[in-house]
Amino acid sequence: MSATPAPSPSTRSPRPAPTQEAPPKARGASRAVLKTEARLFLREPGSLFWILVFPTLLLVILGLIPSFREPVPSMGGLRTIDLYVPVALLLASITTGIQVMPAVLTGYRERGILRRMSTTPVRPAALLGAQIALHGTAAAVSMALALTVGRVAFGVALPEQPVGYALALVLTLCSALSLGCLLCALSATTKAANVAGSAVFFPMMFAAGVWAPVQSMPDTLQQIVQLLPFGAASQALAQASSGHWPGWSHLAVPAAWTLVLAGVARRRFRWE
């Protein structure tokens, strides 16, 4: 019996070319989590009210006060309502990061949802990322709504330095979401998260100028609140509104708070 000749190099079956690795299942599962969380988020009227409606509603109530629509000589001819538009934008960040998001995440941990997700292709980090993305987007929409209402309803001038204004808002929102992650990391239950959030919420509202605009505070008090992310952001927004680039020190404060809070939250965060 004659031996079968070995195929020549020209007739050998070519070795299949290496193919790119298919997208992991976790990636598709993460997208599914984002879609699911978005549907659940839109079904929460309480969260939607506090994030999307409350800041603009407060702005409208203040704008209906006649004296708030009159120029104030001590504030360079600005009206009180002019100062409260940036306050409403900061309030959207504070409400989102401190009041709403921590309760959602601690609720998932308390009900064991994160523990059960560990047995699926979805990583708990995908859920955390989805919550941050959804709440951050909702806060941005709330800011745009308040800015539009201030302009249309009360004639508040748009910022003359929009890039610096937007940068200050982004840094402030990042610091608020980082603070929310830290509150979730340190709170074992939803009740604890609500208590801790309330304890932080009111001082941050004061620093943002909800009760009195930062620009109208005494100099010593201004220097104190500017050490907090929302007090520094208030000054940065005021500078950008008047056409100046925000001071780097005012931008550095929320950026530094973001790095510190996010770092601590990452080390202390527990999925179970």
TrEMBL record:
InterPro entries: ABC-2_transporter (IPR052902), ABC2_TM (IPR013525), ABC2_TM_bact-type (IPR047817), ABC_2_transport (IPR000412). Residues 46-272 form the ABC transmembrane type-2 domain. It comes from the Bacteria. Residues 1-14 have a biased composition (Low complexity). Keywords: Antibiotic resistance, Cell membrane, Membrane, Transmembrane, Transmembrane helix, Transport. It is found in: Cell membrane; Membrane. Residues 1-30 are annotated as: Disordered. It is a multi-pass membrane protein. The chain crosses the membrane at residues 48-68, 83-105, 125-145, 165-186, 193-212, 247-265. PROSITE patterns: ABC_TM2. PANTHER family: DOXORUBICIN RESISTANCE ABC TRANSPORTER PERMEASE PROTEIN DRRC-RELATED, TRANSPORT PERMEASE PROTEIN. Belongs to the ABC-2 integral membrane protein family. This is Transport permease protein. It comes from Streptomyces caniferus. The lineage of its organism: Bacteria, Bacillati, Actinomycetota, Actinomycetes, Kitasatosporales.
